[in-house]
Design brief:
9 strands, 11% strand, two-stranded antiparallel ribbon, 16 helices, 345 residues, 7-stranded parallel sheet
């Protein structure tokens, strides 16, 4: 029952004595059981689009640690892939895509509602998970925010400063805006299908939101998210949404107050006391332990976990990292973190 799920209770602004716990990239390369399945699948896209394997790796951290939520194993770049972008993942280099820098490139993309045949395995993964997850575990679906996905599509890869996307925004704004509109519509359609398939909560990852400034942040981080949330909730009024405009700094307040999300996820550069004062007034807060602590462990991990838990203890809080867990993290440190959060229970 939904009322028994701690994560959903926190998303309804309930202050809980022990915050629910999950971590970004919790199904991933730091786990030996994940690496075994990854090798079995062959390439990364095949792993994402083979429903049984994607469900298995989604379940692995739940079985090992007992997190309060499972997040669908997929990738934010599956949307451009389904729209027609060439996509591959190169070991040691990350994703490589065909670029969108001209109207001719854009015209090769499919329409926003033409993505579902390609993405049906993702929806099937969600159906499998809803049948196999323990009753008290929340199933999270997700997508990349349009700005972040656009930065990869324009550059053809990840970039440290998102310069190609900023350049297109300035020098060919009509094309940039067309791409953002197409991605926003596709993301809405994708997330509606995820909820229909069984997702109980949605997270929107805007990993490169921090590179947007001033009116750009308003137009390309807040407004697309607000539209996604509005249309998603029109179809599914009770679906909670977590927004993560990473590295937004003071703009976290702007985002939390305007984007319509139920929970704001914060990175580890944000002071937790500041976030408690300025963000919990808008709803639940998620984050913000530095992922490095799960590499180094020790007393520093315990102290920082306790400090963050205490900082957010006066409002609704979901314990998480400020970014994804890294491949060099020690699985034993994840258990230490969980034990520290749940101590004295």
């Amino acid at each position: 029952m939904a009322e028994d799920k701690l994560l959903l209770r926190a998303l309804k602004r309930e202050k809980l004595p022990v915050p629910p716990i999950w971590i970004m990239r919790q199904a991933g390369r730091y786990l030996p059981e994940y690496r075994a399945i990854r090798e079995k699948a062959g390439d990364f896209i095949s792993l994402c689009l083979t429903s049984e394997l994607a469900a298995e790796v989604t379940l692995q951290p739940i079985q090992r640690y007992g997190f309060d939520a499972a997040i669908l194993f997929a990738d934010i770049l599956l949307v451009p892939y389904a729209l027609g972008s060439n996509l591959c993942f190169v070991t040691g280099e990350g994703p490589k895509l065909s670029t969108i820098t001209t109207d001719s490139d854009f015209n090769k993309l499919g329409k926003s509602d033409d993505i579902h045949d390609m993405l049906d395995p993702v929806y099937n993964t969600l159906r499998i998970l809803r049948s196999e997850l323990p009753e008290k575990i929340t199933l999270i679906g997700f997508a990349g925010a349009p700005w972040t996905v656009a930065t990869y599509m324009i550059a053809g890869k990840g970039t440290p400063d998102q310069k190609p996307a900023h350049s297109l925004m300035v020098h060919n704004k009509p094309l940039f805006d067309k791409l953002m509109k197409r991605l926003t519509k596709a993301t809405i359609s994708y997330l509606k299908m995820q909820v229909s398939a069984g997702a109980e909560c949605i997270k929107i990852f805007d990993s490169w939101a921090g590179s947007l400034r001033g009116n750009e942040f308003e137009k390309y981080a807040i407004e697309p998210c607000r539209r996604i949330v509005t249309e998603l909730k029109q179809a599914y009024p009770h679906i909670p949404v977590i927004g993560f405009p990473r590295n937004a700094g003071l703009n976290y307040v702007n985002f939390a107050s305007k984007a319509g999300v139920d929970c704001i996820a914060v990175d580890n550069a944000v002071d937790s006391d500041w976030a408690a004062r300025n963000l919990q007034v808008y709803g639940c807060v998620q984050g913000n332990l530095a992922p490095d602590h799960l590499v180094t462990g020790g007393q520093a991990l315990i102290d920082e976990t306790r400090r963050i838990k205490k900082a957010f203890s006066h409002g609704s809080h979901i314990f998480n990292l400020g970014h994804g867990i890294t491949p060099d993290a020690d699985p034993k440190n994840v258990q230490v973190m969980i034990d520290t959060i749940r101590e004295n229970v």
